Sequence to fold (331 residues):
Amino acid sequence: MSDDLAIDARGLVRRYGAQVAVDGLDLQVPRGAVFGLLGPNGAGKSTTIRMLCALERPDGGTALVAGHDVARERRAVRRRIGIVFQDPTLDLQLTVDESLRFHADLYAVPRSEVRPRIARLLDEVGLGERRRSLVRTLSGGMRRRLELARALLHEPDVLFLDEPTVGLDPPSRAEVWRLVDELRTRVGTTVLLTTHYLAEAETCDTVAIVDHGRAVALDTPAALRAQVGDDRLELELDPGDIARAIARLHSEFDITAHADPDGVVRARLVEAERVLPRLLAELGPVVRAVRVARPTLDDVFAARTGRTLGEAASGPADPGRLAARRARRGR
Fold:
């Protein structure tokens, strides 16, 4: 493993009976980076995190996290990481302070550092005044911030965030990511997150788009969008002008366009904003409205898989996450 890598996974495989949840996945995450796994339910994201956290053994391949093998050095791996799972894991009967002190004991945080670390982290996540409150009295967003503080209490080398903002309202989601960014900048912790939110993936240094347990694309968000290439152009016209406008787009601009049943003319082209002034000057008043959209990571997913994230979202849940739930319930 290179000294520059916080995570180095090669050919990871995980099966549940006949079902392959992770199928030969390669991930190399530089130290200090924010690395995102973007994909729909059932893509294998949560299973991947559980293997990297040494909570499940891979059926194939190898992975080093913070320099330790996830199969042979499981305890060492767990000592060097922090985790915020998708499903809540807080004890609702403890106070905020008790929850953090219990975690400090588990991770052998030096006694002299427990109090100042708890105070600093609670202030950073905006829970300084709720230290004596029972966890069950906190809102969903507050509980998520507490889980983030808990995961960082022992100052891990790598922080794993498994769909950390699912179920939160937009302001709470934004607050969680503000805190992650601030803490990552201050401490230098490597962050690996899973998400199906495009906006969250856009904030990552590198994104692996995952489908059916495989990474179908991996690069910076900007580079991934560039692979799709063309901008999307939408023109709203009166129904009587649509056919003539489409013919002119083809003959005068070499742009292939089509009309939707709702009367919107759609086309894809390179650098739409450069062409747009001349196009509007030529078409003139027949255009009632115009919109230009650059490619998104959803477009990248669609280009690589043949369906959008929204279309894939109705798939089955990650089998690794389902197995973890059953284990916690004693089944």
Q: What stands out?
A: The chain has a mean pLDDT of 88.
